[in-house]
Specification:
The complex is a heterodimer of chains A (about 280) and B (about 375).
Chain A (H helix, E strand, L loop, with lengths): L1 H13 L5 E12 L2 E2 L5 E5 L4 E19 L4 E3 L1 E2 L6 E2 L2 E5 L17 E7 L3 E8 L3 H4 L16 E2 L4 E2 L2 E7 L10 E5 L2 E4 L9 E4 L3 E6 L8 E3 L20 E2 L11 H4 L15 E3 L1
Parallel strand pairs in A: 1-18, 14-19
Antiparallel strand pairs in A: 1-2, 1-9, 3-4, 4-5, 4-8, 4-10, 4-13, 6-9, 7-8, 10-17, 11-12, 13-14, 15-16, 18-20
Chain B lengths: L1 H7 L30 H11 L63 H4 L1 H5 L12 H9 L2 H10 L8 H13 L7 H7 L8 H10 L31 E2 L15 H4 L8 E2 L21 H9 L21 H12 L4 H5 L23
Antiparallel strand pairs in B: 1-2
Helix pairs in contact in B: 2-6, 2-7, 9-12
Chain lengths: ~280, ~375
Amino acid sequence: MTRFAFAAAAAFAATPALADMAVSIPFAAEIAGQPFACTQTYAGLGRTRAEVQAVDFRLFVSNPALIRADGSLQSMTLDQDGAWQLGDLALLDFEDASGACANGTAGMNTTLRGTVPEGEYTGLSFTIGVPFDQNHIDPTQAPAPLNTTAMFWNWQGGYKFLRIDMVPTDRKNDGPRGWFLHLGSTMCDAASKTEAPTACKNGNRMEIRLDGFDIAQGTVVIDPAPVVAGADLRANAPDTSPGCMSFPGDADCMTVMAALGLGYMDVPAATQSLVAQR
Amino acid sequence: MGLVGAAALADPVAVAPFAWPMPAWIVPPHVPDDNPMSAAKVDLGRHLFHDARLSRDSTVACASCHVQALGFADGRPRGLGINDTPSTLNVPGLANVGYLPALTWANPHMDSLEFQALVPLFGETPEEMGGAGQEVAIFARLAADPWYRTAFAAAFPDRPAPDLFTITRALAAYQRSLIAVNAPYDRYKYRGEVDALSAAAKRGEQLFFDHRFECYHCHSGIHFTNNLRTARQPQGEVGFHNTGLYESYPATAPGLIELTGRPEDAGRFRTPSLRNVAVTAPYMHDGSIPDLRGVIAHYAGGGRAPGHPQKDGMIVGFTPTEAEIDDLIAFLESLTDRDFLTDPRHADPWPPGHPAVATRRMPAP
C-alpha cells in the first residue's frame, strides 16, 4: 500500500501541465512512385532506365521531434515496444520476407508511435541513422531492434542505417548480383587500434525536416528512385561493393550520396531527395 | 542418417574446469570478462566451428576456410564464401589466435573473437556464410539438434539456447583454446632439447634474429608477431605495417586506411604470427606470394614495390646467399607444431554424413 501511494505521488509529480497526446506517424516505402512490395518489379530506374526487383527495404530512424509553430522542436517520446522502438530509435521495416525478400522478416513496422505534450505542431523532423552512442555497442548483447543481423555492419563497426536492395531483372551474366543502397558511418576511428570508435569521419546520418507536415493526416514517403537517378543500376564499378554502400572510392556513389543530402569525397551535398511528405 | 550421426557423437562435456593445453609457465591469452573459459563451452564451440548449419544453406562452416591440417588456414590465395563468393583477403591460420588484440588483416574494430565472428556469420560484402537476416532460421536449426540442447545448457546454464551471444561466445572460447606451442623450436628453445632443431634451422634462427634481416622486429615474441595480449596485459600491443607489397594498394584491400581514413595507414596490415607458417601458404594479406622463398625474396628486395611512401622503415632489404635462404626456411619450418595439426581436442567432432557436415564444402585437399 505504501509503495502504491509513493508511485502514485511520483506519477502525479511527473505529469506535465498539459496532458500527453499519442502520435502515430505513418511511413510509406515506394519505388518510382509505386508502393514497395517484395513481389513487384519496377521500371525506369537510374540513367539507363533499368527494371529492378526490390529485395529489401529497411531503415533506422532516430530522434523524432515535432516542430512547433515557432520553429522549435518538441521531442517525441517513442513507445518502448520491445521489438521495433528502443529509446529514441526505431527500425522501419517494409519487407515481409515474401517473394524476393529472402533475407527478410515476416513482421513489418511502418509507423513511428509515441507521445508528445498536447499542442499545435506544424512539422516533423527525424534522423535517418543510429545515434553514435548506440551504433558502436556489442550487437550480440543489444536488445531489439539492434539485434537484427540484416542491419549489422560490423566490418565498419556499426549498423546499416538504410538498406534498399535492388536487383536488375535484365542484368548481364557477369553483371552485379544486385544494386544495393546501404548507408552507414564510414572511417570510424578510435583513440587506439583496439578500442571502440570515438568518432567517424563520415557519420552519414541524414537530418530530415518536413515543415508543414500534417501530424493528423500526413505520410512520410521514402523513395530511392530520385536518389539513384544518375546511377547505372545494371552495372557496378569494378572492385567495389555492388551498388553504393557509402564506402569512399566507389564510383557508383558519386551521384547517389549527394542526393541523400550527404557530402561524398569531393562531391558536395545536395538537397536530399529520398524523403518527401504527402 | 541423423540418428546414426547422433549416436556416434560423444556426449556433451559435463561442467568441468578448463585447462589450457600448454605448459603452466606460458601466460594464457587475455579472456574477456563476459566469456570465461570452460571445457563445456570450448567443446560446444568446436562443434559449432565445424557445423555448416551456421550458414544460410548449410554449405559453409568456419572450418570450410579454417582447416586444422593447414593450421586452420585453407591453402587458397583468398577465402571462398557461400556460392563460391570470392574474398579479397587470405585466410589467416588460427594457431594462438586468442593472443591477438586485433583480428583479421587490417581492421581496428575487430578487437575480440566474439565480435569478429559476426563478420563471417553475417557479413555481406563479401558474403562468407550468408547469415544476414537468417538468424531465426539458423538458431532454430541448431536448437532442433538434440546434441546442442544438452551442450548449450552445459556451456550456458543461464541462457541455454543458441543466440547471438551464446554462439559467438562458444566460437571464441574454442578458438582461444587453439594453442600451438609444441614446435621443434619450442622444444629446442624452452625445453632444452638441443637436438630438436637441425643445424640449418639453428643457423636460420641466428639470421632471423639478426639486424641484417630484421625479421624479428615485427615477428617478435612468443608467437612471432608484435600483436599480443596475454592475461597479464591490461591492454594489447598491436602492429600494422606497410611492407612495400604494392606501389598502390588496390581498392579491394587498401589496408588499415579503409577503416581509419588516415593516409599513413595506406597498405598497413597486421603482422601475422609465424607459428605453423610452413603449412599456411600462400602468403601475405592477399595470398599473392606462393611460397616462403618468394616471401624472403620480397623482403630481400626491400619490398616487391619498394617505393611506397608509407613503407615501414624496418623493410630495408638485404642480400642473402642461397644457403642463408635455405637456413631461414629451415628455421621457419621448425615453427610448425605437428601435434596441433592433428590434436583430437581441436578436431572436427561430427561423424561423416551428420546433418552438420553432410552438405559442408571444404577446400580441395
